[in-house]
Each structure stands twice: as structure tokens, then as C-alpha cells.
């Protein structure tokens, strides 16, 4: 680490991290924000020059939550980029891709930046309410997508991931990927699409990082594992009207009896071949639809057109963030990271200790100890957030009886439940306890929830 100020302030910590990396194979803290794996081949000289110039120009500027920087962009776009732009999409950068954060309704809108609620707060709320009341169409092309095929596919995936792989064609499972120290290196949805073929969906920004773990387990002869993130795109259509809406575009029955939760099928939708998975990060009734990139524009146009009949429309990433927190779902790099062990984030039941998998011994050792802290969902006092005009965003300290007990990892307003919410880690506190979250340096009263406020029993998800 060079330079006078960074050298003095960071060199000792970085030295410790490097020493741990060399001696144990992994650092105790999540260092992904410093990891070169954040960048792929798309980060060429032009992009790098623009980003370096921007970084030095803004080195001493004040930075804000959800801030998106324009340098070097657009870098990578998909076929529907111009259509989304015409609908007023305000984009963010996700592993080089332009990805819609929210929709302003007309082109030309830009984020305002600050620590309080900004110009996107209201439109994001309308997107959430639309989806929860009717349906919404979310571009999930930024997710990493892989195909594993061959006679050794099932055995290899079982050796990589902690959960057991689906046995029946059309079934899916959620599985952790365990880090060297036994933490959560990643999480993935794995679907069996054939006798010897699987479809894997995971974090897009972690694709290069996760390759280190995939490469750690040799592939059996005749078996391939390849990324389809560029070749395939995806949409999540979710909400109470999503089934009725999609049924207009396909002859495949989407009834619960024929297409239950966590199942998949190859279907044709508006003339486009799709892999349909009945899952949704919104926590609502919904389907993920994965199609060839060359078909993305056709599928998007069909979804938007049929959506008009149901009062459905496009939904961005910030609305998805709000809805997944309403459901209490964690996200990679926030709640799920190598820093946290499976039983600290509620994923221990997905670690099948009766089989071998990558870094099993480390997970086994971690699980023998009590959790250092636990992931919880908090409801911030309405009067306090109204007075500050701010929600938690991540990094805010959590106090109980004047003592620091944890920190926020994700924060948002839950528009469909009318609650300012935060996910975070705490120790010495549990459901029902009253705590304080320091938002903008001021204490905001909060209560640890026992259940997520949206669909706590999963009835809508499985409807």
C-alpha cells in the first residue's frame, strides 16, 4: 500500500491480511472490495484509465450510499439496454454490465446522492407496490449462470457444494459454497435439467472470485462446467398476478399442482425457449425465465406487452433489494461472505455433513462452536426514520443498553409492509429485544423481529 496517508492507516491491517492469506489460505475478514476478481476481461485499458482518473479526481470527495459513478461507462450492455433506457431506467454497474436500478418513467433521470432519502425513494416504492399488488418484471441477467454436463456432473457438484444435489429432473436446491475457513464463499440455486445436466445460478459480481473454488475440485473426465452468463439472459416475473400473466404466453400449465415451488421446466414463452424456475428473490410467487441472449429483446417485449393488461411493468434492482429484505433474505457480499459461518446466517441446515464437499473440515470445525453472532431482521421506529428522513443502508452500529452489540449489513424501506427494515449481525440479543441503530450518527429505536414481515409462512411464495 503506497502513499503517506494510506500507508500509515492501512499497511498494518493489509499486512495482517496478507500474512493470513499466505499461512492459512484465507483472510479472516472479507476482502472482496480489494480483490482483483471484481474485474473481468471487460476491464480493458480504456475502462481502467477512466476509472483511475475518476478515482484520483474524487479521492477526497464525500461518498454516499448507493452512489454510482459514470467513469468508463457504459462498458457492457445487453440487447434490452436501449429499450430500458427509453423507459427511464437509471443504471448501475454490475461486473461491467449496465443494470437497471430503478425506472423514472421517462429518459434522462439521474440519481441524486446523499445520506437521506433521495429522488429514487418514491419511484422504487411504486415499483414494489406494483409487484406486490399485481406483478413486476425484473431483469436478472446480472446473475451468474453456469451449465454442468457429463457423466460426472452430479458427483462433481456434490464435491463442490455443501448441499446434496437434486436427484430428480426439474428439481432445484439452494446450496452454500464453503470458504477455506468454513465461511460462506457463495450461495447458488442448482437445478437438475437432465440425467447428467445441471443449471447453476449464483452471484454475478462474484463470478471470477467463485472460479477459484470451482477450480479447486478437478472435473471428472467427460464432464464440462462452463459459464453461460454472456450467452444467456434472464427475467424474474413475480407477484400475485404473475402466474395468470405468464399463462397467457405459454401452453405449459403453471398451476401449482403442475409447477410447484422449487421446480423447473423447459418451456416456450411467446415463441421463445426458456428454462423456467419457480423461484423468486422477491419472496413472492414468481418464476425466473432464462433465455438465449439473442432472444432477450423478444421476450422482454412480450412480457411488457402482456403486463399492460395486468398493470405490471419493469422493476429495478433497488426494489428487489427492498423486497428481499422484507422477506429476510440475505445477499452475497452483505449477509453471506467468508467472514460469516453457516450457523450465523441460518444456512447450517443446507450443509450436509454426511458427505464430503469442498472445505468440509473447516465448516465442521466452525459448526462445533457456538455462533459468534447471529443474523437478525430489525424494524426501525417509524417516528425516528421520519424525523431523520433516512433508512439504514449498511454499516450502522447497533446498540443495546448503551453497549455496541453489532452492525447493519443491509437496510431499506419495506414499502409493501410500511416498515423501515435492516438486516444485521448482533450478539447478546434476540427476537423481541429493543435496540438502537445509529442512523446518520443518531440513535434510532428498533426492535428485532421474530419473523419477516412479508409472508412469514411462505404461503404466497408457494401459492
From TrEMBL:
> Do you know which Pfam families this protein is assigned to?
FAO_M, GCV_T, GCV_T_C
> Which residue ranges does the record assign to the FAD dependent oxidoreductase central domain?
24-77
Which residue positions does the secretion signal occupy?
A: none
Q: Where is the Aminomethyltransferase C-terminal domain?
A: 375-455
| Family affiliation | Belongs to the GcvT family.
Q: Name one GO cellular component term.
A: mitochondrion
| Keywords, ordered alphabetically | Oxidoreductase
Report what the protein is called. Sarcosine dehydrogenase
Q: Which source organism? A: hydrothermal vent metagenome
The GO molecular function terms of this record are: sarcosine dehydrogenase activity
Q: Which residues form the GCVT N-terminal domain?
A: 81-355
Give EC number(s), comma-separated: 1.5.8.3
Q: Does the keyword Transport apply?
A: no
